[in-house]
Amino acid sequence: MRTVFVKKLIEEARQDSNLFLLTADLGYRALEEFQDEFPERLINVGVAEQNMIGVATGLALSGKNVCVYSIVPFVTFRCFEQIRNNISHNNLNIKIIGVGGGFSYGDQGISHNTTEDFAVMRTLPNFNILCPGDKIEAELVIKAMFNDAKPAYIRLGKAPNISVYESIPKFRIGEGLTVKEGHDITILSVGNIIENVIQVAKKLDEKGVSAQVISFPCIKPLNYEYIENIAKNMKPIFTVEEHGAIGGFGSSISELLMESKYSGLFFKKIALPDICHNTIGSQIFLREKNGLNVDAILNNILNYVQ
User: What are residue 164's DSSP bridge partners?
Assistant: First the structure.
């Protein structure tokens, strides 16, 4: 997905001479095209992510539009104080681009696993939080991100090998995108775990359970009326995410449902267990180990609908 991001960033930079990109010694084989075209607007601060947020703050306070780019845990957890005090509290037009969400870099070691970022970042006022599930969603959320002067955090993972949409859907901040219609249950998904969710929905159809699938490229803000419209049918709702069970997308949905007049419906989060994820391996391996492979998600849902 970072290829989509860089392509859209270059397009935006051609129209906006105030757009700057900062990186912390990352982006090789990805950012060279931007650097070749805009050498004075790419700043590599070195392995100093907290300082990168400080430099970005100075640029933003000087009227610049700024993107900062790094691997998710390094640009969120390591910099949280600076993001909170500098960006959030001043409502600055700075976009935080984190690559490698979830277990995307699972074979690089536990320092690269990202299973708590939604929970941390969604506590910050003023921030939009975006997490596309495929390349089309990536293009949609990046466009929406640049059209909004608010600070934003976008979590990029590896794009799935399938085409989720037959045509480009209309995307609104705070709402989901219907991937598949169904009338028995509703599955809400965020990020590129959508590739597994679609397979699960097909297997459910084979077992006589018709599943509606809605992908949420935006988890903050969430449109309350949109969620209520999903809930009013009183179909069981499941959320699926490559994030910890506490404080993530499922928690966001459950909070809204508890405040709605449809709070009596069945709801179930399918997420990563509340443990330290210190196993090293590929994303596929770590999803299987933590109950997010196709069969595990399928069986989890069937336990409650059959």
Answer: none
Q: What is the per-residue pLDDT across 220-254, written as a single tens digit (0 to 9) for each? A: 999 999 999 999 989 999 999 999 999 999 999 99
Contact 220, 194 (CB under 8 A): no
Sheet holding 211-215, edge to edge: 177-180, 211-215, 185-189, 237-244, 267-272
Give the per-residue pLDDT at 159.
66
Rounded to an integer, what distance in angstroms lies between the CA atom of residue 114 and that of residue 289?
15
Q: Please report the domains of the chain, with CATH numbers, ordered by start residue.
A: 2-156 (3.40.50.970), 177-305 (3.40.50.920)
Alpha carbons within 13 A on the beta-carbon side of 126:
16
Task: Report whether 154 contacts 131 (CB < 8 A).
Answer: yes
Per residue in 258-283, is it b (16+ CB within 10 Å) or e — as a string?
eebebeebebbbbbbeeeebeeeeeb
Residues 97 and 5 sit within 8 Å (Cβ to Cβ): yes
Q: Tell me which amino acid residue 76 is.
A: T
Closest by CA position to 190, among listed 253, 233, 108: 253
What pLDDT digit, counting tens, does each position of 76-92 carry?
999 999 999 999 999 99
The answer, yes or no, to whether residue 31 has pLDDT greater than 70, is: yes
What is the pTM (predicted TM-score) of this model?
0.95
Is 145:95 a contact under the CB 8 Å cutoff?
yes
Angle between helices 135-146 and 2-15 (to 10 degrees): 30
- 3-state helix vs strand vs coil in the chain, percent to 5: 40, 20, 40
**Strand runs (DSSP E) across 89-236, as ranges?**
94-99, 128-130, 152-156, 177-180, 185-189, 211-215, 218-220
- The Cα–Cα gap between 222 and 175 comes to 6
